[in-house]
Amino acid sequence: MTVRTRFAPSPTGYLHVGGARTALFSWLYARKHGGQFVLRIEDTDLERSTPESVNAILEGMTWLGLDYDEGPFYQTARFDRYDEIIQQLLDNGHAYRCYCSKERLDELRETQMAAKTKPRYDGHCLKNKADDPDAPHVIRFRNPVGGSVIVNDLIRGKVAISNDELDDLIIRRTDGSPTYNLTVVVDDMDMNITHVIRGDDHLNNAPRQINILNALGAEAPVYAHVPMILGDDGSRLSKRHGAVSVMQYREEGFLPEALINYLVRLGWSHGDQEIFSIDEMISLFDIDDVNKAPSSFNTEKLEWLNQHYIKETDPAHIATLLRPHMGKLGIDPSEGPDLVEVVKAQQERANTLEEMADISQFFYKDYDEFDEKAAKKNLRPVAAEPMIKIREALASLSEWNEATIHTAIHDVAAALDVKMGKVAQPLRVAVVGRAASPGIDITLFLVGQEACLRRIDRALAYIEARANETAAN
RNA sequence: GUCCCGUUCAUCUAGAGGCCUAGGAUAUCGCCCUUUCACGGCGAGUACAGGGGUUCGACUCCCCUACGGGACGCCA
């Protein structure tokens, strides 16, 4: 039997990191076993499902490289099939009509909560038939009484739940639409899903689903409930923890390789290995190695991985990805040095593409103003003389390249009998406006001779103004 | 409240009864490299939730407690 897994999100929002990891695990499992990965959109909640959300989910999966072999299948397109199954359950006594009002159910729930018991439907309509069978009603699955259901979970092991804990759940609403627990069972059955890998929050649903499957005479798939992802403070992951949407990570300048690598290591590990290529994940991943405990999302480790992949990736490719981030800052990289060269210079200095764009702005436009601390420290009157000398040296260069620039700076330092730092650091601040940049030679080279001289003049004016100010006091 | 699940450094994790003086990674701090920032190298501190058993021996097995998470919907 070939392995068939699925990812079945409900389109009520964006693809978030928790869903993405579940999808990744399902995808890896299918790929590892040479099986199929199916995408199914669970859109039976007509109120909350939106086409925008469907697009967001598809976009997120595409970006992460989680390709599916079948689908997307939409549950809203399968209502006839669900009706058929519901009728079948009705016919063989595994389901019944329920005419209880919402008010009655709410009241029942409250009473039971007050009595400190688990809220459950009391089976009222099972015993009392309505006068008019066509009056508005829902359809309930008739859950077995007594005994217990064993969920043989690949991650949790054997989980037993007593049938007395389960009540007769609604499988069709008053408006005729089927509910989740019914559709998921029918779909997994029809789509021949062999392994249901999903979030831990569904563990409680498994026994009810197994009961429905039994009533249908179908075999249950193998279940694997993966633990949830929590925020960095250990509480349920939410927007207040920062980015939760997969696409937001792209906007913030993360590479899909980094996010995938981060996600695969959350709740799963293979010895001490931290870096995994997709092929390695496929060959090494195993459900048996997935942890039972929930894990906290840690952005700092994600950033480390992102930097790792930025360093490892071909600069030309990084440049392509960086371009839109430059654009967001109002910079057109075609009006300046080759972006690929800029990437090479910055590759080891940025955790994200967004950050790389930020620290690369000065290659393309003059800085707005000096970084205060850097200017205060480096653009002092004592820096004036070396700065004037270096300006002369740079201005006289007829060949503008890293080697000639290097020699020029070196010679000035030697002539003044000072360390390189005394010359290079004020020069850096003069040219880039702040204290940090790539190597001084490559920086000057990429900024260009004309812009360098212009900015040095600006720094000299700054130093002079400051000297006058000091003298005046 | 009831039921289900979980608990190793701040965080992700290794650990399948003696290999554990509990290993790796991120983060933090220090040193080295260095014209800055990074990268890289080296090093430091930091954990088996608590209590009972079982055993010659428990991070590993069992029980209880505490804490955390999930479910209890005409949501999925």
Task: Kindly summarize this structure in a few lines.
This protein is mainly alpha-helical and 473 residues long.
Essential attributes:
single chain; 473 residues; mainly alpha; three-stranded parallel beta sheet; three-stranded antiparallel beta sheet; elongated; RNA-binding
**Largest sheet geometry:** 3 strands, parallel
Give the mean pLDDT: 92
Order of strands across the main sheet: 1-2-3
In the predicted model, the low-confidence regions spanning at least 5 consecutive residues are none
Tell how many strands the DSSP assignment holds: 12
SS-based class: mainly alpha
Strand content: 5-15%
What do these coordinates show?
The strands form five sheets. A three-stranded parallel beta sheet has the order 1-2-3, covered by helices on one side. Helix content is 48%, strand content 11%. The mean pLDDT is 92. The chain starts with a strand and ends with a helix. The protein has helices at 17-32, 51-64, 79-91, 102-114, 124-127, 180-190, 206-216, 246-251, 256-264, 278-284, 299-312, 315-328, 339-346, 353-359, 372-378, 384-395, 402-416, 420-432, 440-447, 449-472, and strands at 4-7, 36-41, 70-74, 95-98, 138-141, 148-153, 157-162, 170-172, 195-199, 222-226, 229-230, 295-296. The longest helix is centred in the C-terminal third of the chain and has 24 residues, at 449-472. Helix 9 (256-264) packs across helix 11 (299-312), helix 12 (315-328) packs across helix 13 and helix 16 runs antiparallel to helix 20 (449-472). With 473 residues, it is mainly alpha-helical. It has 20 helices and twelve strands. The protein binds one RNA strand of 76 nucleotides through helix 4, strand 7, helix 6, strand 12 and helix 11.
